[in-house]
Amino acid sequence: MRAIRAIRAIRDRPQVLSPRTAAGDHREKRDAYERAGVREYWLVHPTDRTLMVYRLVDGAYGRPEVQALIAETAVATIDGLCIIWPVAPAESAGAG
Q: What's the helix, strand, coil split of the chain in %, to 5?
């Protein structure tokens, strides 16, 4: 079970989706992280600028919280840590 030990060592890490691996990230990795007890699992969709956050409750992930990659997102499993998302090029071009 080397893979599970490795997963435990990298708890709470985000995954950035690519078209080639998106299906696997949504299913296989989510299931493996759930079995390993990873408390919070993030899937970042860079092209549509959304974030899916799965949180472990009673040993299982429920439906993800889905949010836009704007402003900042608090990391629930690490007190005081927030991820500040960069402004998308189209957003910054229209801001001026």
A: 30, 30, 40
Q: Rounded to two decimals, what is the model's pTM?
A: 0.70
> Tens-of-pLDDT digits for all 96 residues of the chain?
344 444 444 445 566 667 777 777 678 888 988 999 988 888 888 888 899 999 999 999 999 999 998 888 888 888 888 888 888 776 655 555
| Start-to-end Cα distance in the chain | 53
Closest listed residue to residue 50, CA positions, set 34, 29, 32, 65: 65
Q: What are phi and psi of 41, to 5 degrees?
A: -130, 120
Cα–chain center distance at 50 = 10
Cα–Cα distance, 31 to 67 (Å, whole number): 21
The answer to whether residues 77 and 92 touch, using CB atoms and an 8 Å cutoff, is: no
Where do we find the tokens 């956050």? Answer: 53
Q: Quick check: helix, strand or coil at residue 23?
A: helix
